[in-house]
Amino acid sequence: MATAPIQMSAVRATSVRQVRLVCGVILFSYVVSHFLNHALGNISVDAMEVGVYYHTVFWQFLPIAIVFYTAALTHMGLGLYALYQRRQFRWRTIEPLQLVLGLSIPVLIMAHVIGVRLGQTLYGHQKLYPQELYLFFVASPGRLWQMTILLLIAWVHGCIGIFFWLRLKPFFARAAPYLLAAAVLIPTLSLLGTYQGGRSVAVESDDGEWRTHNLSRRQIGTAAEGNTLDRITGSLTIGYFGLLGLALAARGVRALRERRGGMIALSYGNGKTVRVPKGLSVLEASLRHNVPHASVCGGRARCSTCRIRIIGDHGALPEPSPREAFVLTRVGASDPSIRLACQLRPTSDLSFFQLFTPHTLSANAQASTPARIGQERYLVSLFVDMRGSTQLAEKRLPFDTVFIVNRFLGAVSQAVIENGGQPNQFVGDGMLALFGLSADPQAACRQALKAASGIATRIDELNELLSHDLRQPIRFGIGIHGGEVIIGDIGYRDHIVFTALGDAVNVAARLQDMTKTLACEAIVSEEVRRTAGLADDALPQQEVAIRGRDEPLAVRVVADARDLTALVDRGERVAA
Description:
alpha+beta, Alpha-Beta Plaits, 13 strands
């Protein structure tokens, strides 16, 4: 029974975009394999034939072939659906470019697929590299340009999709130079290999023995068989253009129905009102009328920054889709008046206000560093708080108190920086530090644990330095937790700061607060302990209730934070 919520959550989390992504990755893997095979032409045509043998063995293995062709048909169908569904293309130029390139691929590749794969299935043709290169470089050179354009279009389309997929991943900034190098080198080597192989075949084709061996009826078929395959290619191409026309006609019918269905008024709560046809999402209406509207993910329901709060009655609104419900549940938005603007398609007049106001920069701000949009990644949050600061302030002059608090925060920050972290927010006498901005999750967890140990050591040094002025030593509490968060620039105009938002940050703050009741220096979540590779018996375990969470959280209690460095070192030695 416990697996049912997990399964339902997985179903809700799955969107059309994710299905398209999975299919696209499968197809791009095939393209990469094919391109690398072409690149073997820089060695010889024989090397290309050896490579295509293994390429064929893998991709024509029945289960893989079924997955591949299913992915191809699904991806093409979703491309047509995207052409019908998308009302606005103002997100960025690269998205309509990707769609146009993707829709052109079936037209360009149809003849090649029919000639090779269907020719093999119907007539037993054995067209391999010598036969195909002869066709492109000798028999019909004009088709060489068509194939070159196809290769470039398929590669660019796939690279755009991979970029959209990976750009929010934590490793993308480090991997981008290598990915760019691969994106340039692979098609370049592929085209050079095709050219070199074609030149070799063109020279060898003057030899009658070569023609007898490579251009037999079994290999390339008869003229009648070729005409049949051409007719099939023409029919399928016309059918595909018919599908494109059908999608465009469906867009026209939808627009006509929307106009006949009447217009509705959307009021933004700030005096701005626009009139749009029924059926548009609130976010699409904002784009159509150039109304600034926050949307980090571009309207794909991957974030909640486009959230709006309905003013007045919300009972007549369409029910949230499974994807919208999943996102709203994920961010804890249980209020039915809160909806995602990219998913809500009202059918009557609507008044609302945006929960996240988009950045509107002044002229001076535009000249400065551009705002960094939100990125989702795994980070480790460390919250540290100074104990007894209120009592400290009661018995000292304000400037003396500020001096001691600054020395405390300075010592904490130094320990964080020395261990690879970044001091992020200072709230009174407390601080949030982030680990993992330039490290993998395991390294980030270990850095945070060592930083906690370093904080304890630095505070010991500070207590000794201020011993003549302190009635009792400075004490502290630390909470450490890791997980997926959103990082980006938060704020307004000249008061924008880079920070992290998410459940993992809130949990770290709650754990820090619990050090008071559990009488310890630090509390580490089980997630961080496990990811860091600490032994299971290294620290005492306990389950605690976290405000805002239904389930208790497993944590490790650290009585003396100075011991954490030794535990981390021991875990690293065991792992090595």
